[in-house]
Structure formats: structure tokens, C-alpha cells
Description:
By secondary structure, the protein is mainly alpha-helical. Helices cover 55% and strands 4% of the residues. The chain has a 3-stranded antiparallel β-sheet. Strand 1 and strand 2 (37-39) form a beta hairpin.
Amino acid sequence: MTAEQAATALGVTRSTLYAYVSRGLVRSAPTSGTHQSRYRRREIERLVVERDRARKPAMVARASLDWGRPVLDSALTLIEQGRLYYRGRDAIELSRHACLEDAAALLLDCDPRDLASGPPPRVDRSVLRQLERLDPVQGCTAGFAWLHGLDDGGDAQDATASSAMACTRLLRLMTAVVTRRVPARTPVHRQLARAWRLDERGTQLVRQSLVLCADHELNASSFAARCVASTGADLGACVTAGLAALSGTRHCGITAAIEALWARSLAARRSAMAFDRLLDAYDSPGTSDGAGVPGQAVPGFGHPLYPDGDPRAQALLAAIPRQDRNERLMAAVLARSGMHPSIDYALVALRRSLGLAEGHAYRVFALGRTVGWLAHAIEQRRADVLIRPRAAYTGRRPPEVAADAAATQPSSRIVRRR
């Protein structure tokens, strides 16, 4: 947008618009061949919505559930100034050397040795073979619920809310769902490497990605896990709730749309016109297969909490060979929208680089995030508060309720000034 268009959309003068730029509320970009700057339409539209919400208290409350103000206390994960921290430790730095069990010990605030205790749960191999018939999303959600329901030792060990042994047992069950192999004591990334026949480079990439996926504050799946935990449900039910939320196309289910975009971009790589038409399609409503996170230019690009790029994606993509990252697609989206890849895109790049089948990006995310769901569930249990927000009713009101509401409204006065 031009300065005049942006100022008109915001309902401010140009000088106020420039003040917004100096305060970092919006960003400007120079236009080649002119002395004028342009303003990203999405940022202007976001600021308009935020200004409207600030004027209406009811909208402020609703916005808290939509990338808005914090609504729950948590000591687990901090997202601030474009960086991610697990209990005060930089998650990106942690991922360079730690394994998922290390991240679990940190988020669960327990001794790592406690997570290694206890025998692995017994899993019937025939059940694992049955999971082969399901797609990756169904296999994770239904498979975990099935194995958890068959686990005889789970209920007894889940009696203590902070039991590291119970969390270890559930993490091993989830690993069995992903690998289709009986649970073992070895680190999760080693079990994946064995099941997927990875070399050491691939093993370390998977290890890093698991840690990067371990938690991400109050995303939809973690909030779902906390809601279930607040009812007093067992930890396995909380993980199942997280998996159900994860399957949506606005959460990790978006990896399927990223896979489709990636395949189409490769098919159009020989024609610049075809490549442009492919990206043009995502600017038109109803052409993204019903998938996409609000605020994203195309599936897998952009994150409301990271305007300058998702640090998890940056760390993982930096470890993947350049030829496996689809550089042309990333550059084209960046030039068009200024948006960088998200962790979902990086996981798809990971699975393609390792030569794994489609769906493995989803499996890695689900397995890594299991740790976060368990940590959120335990933290919510300790809070001992039922999550039960009220609804702002917008439907038809019964006559007697409408009459009562009208009777309790304060009388209005018109004050005329001379």
C-alpha cells in the first residue's frame, strides 16, 4: 500500500503513520525507482483490527483467545522478541545438543534419571500392524488412544500428577505409535533412526527437530490438553486431546497442504509464468484447499508470533542441505509477502531431505509435542482450576430475557451544549 492508502485505512494522518513506523508498529519498504515507501497490507490490516479491539472492551476479551493477551499463567515456555525459551533456556541452543528426553526433564522440572526409570509398556505387535492401515494423522490420534486404553499399567502410575514415570510411559507409547515398533528404553531419536533406517546425520536432524517441537506456549493443541487436564482427566486423555487438535489444517495438519504446494512448485519450476500463477492462486479466496493459518501468505509461511521469521524453522533449515530446502519457493514467497518459513515447512523439508514417506513430518511434530502436552497437563493439574470461560451469546433471546435486559439498562441522557 502507498502511504496515502495506509493512512486512509488507519484513519490517521501521514505524520502519524510515520510515527507508527518509527515505533515499530508497521514496517515500510522502499520502492525501486522512486523516493516513496510501501507498506505491507497485512500489517496495516492487523493494526486496524488491533485499534478497533482496543476501543471495545468486549473485543479485547475475545482477542485474548486469538493471538492476543496472555490468558493463563505458565512457567513452561516464553516467546519474546522473536525467540523461544523452555523454562528460561534458549530452545534453539538447547536443540543443538539435547535430545527429547532432556527437553522433557526440563519442561517437566524433574531429574532426567526419573524419566529413564520403569519398564517400557507392553504393546501387542498385532495392534501395531493394524495401525499400518491408517493415514499418519489417524494413526497418531487413534493409535495412541488405542494403545493407552490397552495399557494395564498406565492408570496406576498416573495416580500421581507429577509422576515422571507416568510421563515416560506415555512418551514411549507415542513412540511406538510413530515407529510401529514395541517400546524400548533407548532415546526416542535413536528409536526413530532404527525404524526409519537413518544414518547419523539423519539421526541428529530428527533429534534436533524433536526438541524444537517440544512445546510452543498456549497453541491450540496445548490449550486443549490443559482444558482436559483441568477436568481431572488422566494424562493419556490430555495427550489424546492434544493429538485431536493437532490434526486440524490450521495446526500441524497443514503439513499436507505444504506437501501439495511443494510438489506443485517443483512441477512448475521450468516455467516462470506457471510458478507465478501457482503463488497467485493463494492470493485468491477459496484456492488453498481449506488449509492455512490466519496471517500466512501460503501454507507454511509466516507466523504471527515471529514477524521476522520462525527461529525453529531457521535452525532446522540451516542444518538441511541447500538443495533440499526448495530455495526458489522460499525466495518467491519472501519477495511477495515478506514472510519466512514456519516450523511446519521445515519439517516437510526435513522429511524430503531424509527420503522419508509423506506423513513423517506430522509424526515428528506429534511425537515431539507430546512432551509439551504432558508438561501443560501437569502444570494445569497443579493449578487446580477448571478452565470454563463464558460465552458471549449472539443468538435469539427469549422474550422474557430480552424484557429483563431492557429493564436493567441504564437510562440514557442527551446533553445539549450551547
